[in-house]
Each structure stands twice: as structure tokens, then as C-alpha cells.
Write a structure and sequence with these properties.
By secondary structure, the protein is mainly α. The protein has helices at 19-32, 54-71, 86-95, 100-104, 107-118, 126-140, 154-171, 215-223, 239-250, 254-266, 271-298, 300-329, and strands at 6-11, 37-42, 78-80, 146-147, 180-181. Helix 1 (19-32) links the parallel strand 1 (6-11) and strand 2. The structure holds tryptophan.
Amino acid sequence: MEERKQILSCIQPTGNMHFGNYFGAVQNWVKLQTEYNCYYGIVDYHAMTMPYNPKKLRENVWDLIINLMAAGIRPENLFVQSLIPEHAELNWIFNCFSSHGQLTRMTQFKDKSQQSKESSDNFISTGLLTYPVLQAADILIYQADYVPVGKDQIQHLELSRNIAQRFNNQVGKEYFIMPEALLTEIPKVMSTADPTRKMSKSAGEKHYINVFAEEARIRKQVRSAVTDTGDTPEGEMSAGVHNLFSLLRACDKHEIHDSLMGEYEKGSLRYSELKDAVADALVSISTRLRENKEVLLKDKKTVKEQIKASSAEIRKRAQQTIREVKDLTGLLNVKF
Ligand code: TRP
């Protein structure tokens, strides 16, 4: 039998999972588990690159673990980055194989350092600069074949490949395999309050719909979704209506989608009908996940044990890489 390919992806513990996160990453991660060996990391080291609250960070990690499991991520595929300190060890080694100039040119670094500059204390951490090097360590430490990421991460993945290449050249061995992006067809979910911007937490409360919100809140947010703003060119679908149709597709409601699209084309679509269909579809996903979450929350101890065990198991793979990397780079490799 052909060996299953490795998938690796990671997510930052930012608290509250919204439908943008769910359709943009999590739902896809769940599906990939049937076809690939998957490693999914919660990257708490990465969450320290910008100002943060230590207590909140730890809470967010446990929250996200529960939310991901409620969505269908198998606990044996999940790990917490800081429980596998070899990520940070490989990060240092990779610092020595990455170009400083390339790091300063990263789009995300430029955006986020600008944000930091505008903040009150005007502080830009070195972690923000070397963030993508740690990301390369996350990926290469497991010799991942594919990395499911959004387009905004392509530049970081390219850096991982550059690091792998430079490392391989320097040690004279094709040791690291070149990871590839797995760009699946992922629906782009926009804010219902402003369909010209991405659904995201940073824009404020009305710009995202929490997967675990009360049914009434979800319905209210969908009901107040912006449809026509009057500036859409004649004969074109407005961004808001387009977003509502995308949400129906993301929920796999293809039959309702097609029938409402037929109405739209005939000019007889009532937006309230479209909104009701979207709200029903989101509520049905939310209800399923909330039920799962309730069960998990009843037995948090088991969840903690599962994550400890899976991180320990996944760590063995990371330790093997570190041993081999030490051999190749001339670092001492002594067993204590
Ligand atoms: N940078 C990614 C993001 O912001 C998170 C991340 C960290 C990641 N390490 C990774 C994604 C490794 C894929 C693979 O979304």
C-alpha cells in the first residue's frame, strides 16, 4: 500500500471561532483527516509576537482545543506547539539558515510592524520578524508534504522552502523535503455587516458570526446582513448578496442555493428568503457543534489527558528530526 502523505497546518489561539475560520480552514482540516496523516498545531509561541495577555493565552488554547474537537478534529491529530519545545530549537537553527533581508520584506511583517508602530508603546518584537522562521520549523520538523493554507500564507511557505533548500545545500544532503501548499477551493467568507471586507475578529463584533453563538444572535446577524448598497453596477450581483450565496454553498446547501439563484436570475428573489435559508444553514452547523462542545466540556479532564498524550506522541517525530539535524549540522548529539 502506498504510504499516506503528511499534512501539517497550524492555527493561532485567538479565541472565539467564527464562520470565517470554520469555512476557511477548520472544515477543510476535518475532511483531510480521511485521506492523509494529519498534524494540526495550536501555535501558542506564535501568539506571543504581538502584545498579549498570559492568562487569556492559556484560556484561548484550551478553548480552541475544545472547539476544534467539537468541529470533528481527532484529538490524536492535535498538538500544542509549546508542549513540543523542539519547534523552538529548530527555530534557532533555522534562524541561521534564513535571510534577514527576506524576513524584513515579508508582507505580514510589514503590516504588523506598522500596526505596532502606531500602537502606544511603539514596540516591534524580534519575534514578529522571525515569526515565519518558526513557521518553517513547524512544517519541516514533521517533513510535511502538504500545508493547507490560505493565499496570505504562500509567502511564508516559500520561505520554508528556501530554508529547506539552503539547509540541504549546506549539509550536502537532500534531507528536508520541499513542502507544498494545498490550495483547496475554500469559500471566502465576508463580513455580513460590510461585505467588502473579510469576516474577521479584528474589525469588531458585528463583522464576524461566532460559530457557538446563541441561535437568536446568529439569526439576527444574518437578518441584518447588508444586501444592496446602491453602488453595484447595473446587472451585477452586489457583494452582500454574493456573500450570502457563498455561505449557502459553504454549508453544502446546493439545492436551496440553486433554486434561490434561479429566483435571483428571474428577478423574483426576496432577500428575506435568502437570509432565512442562510440563517437555517448556519444554525444547523452551530447546533451540531454546540452539542459536541457540551459533551466535551462535561469531561475536560479527559480532553486534557488526550492532548497531553497526543502531543507526547507527536513530539517523538519532532525529536527524531532534531537528532538527525544535530548530526547533520555538527551539533553535539549526546544521550543523557
Ligand atoms: N502563520 C499562520 C497563520 O497566521 C499560522 C501558522 C503557524 C501556520 N505555523 C504554521 C500555518 C505552520 C501553517 C503551517 O495563519
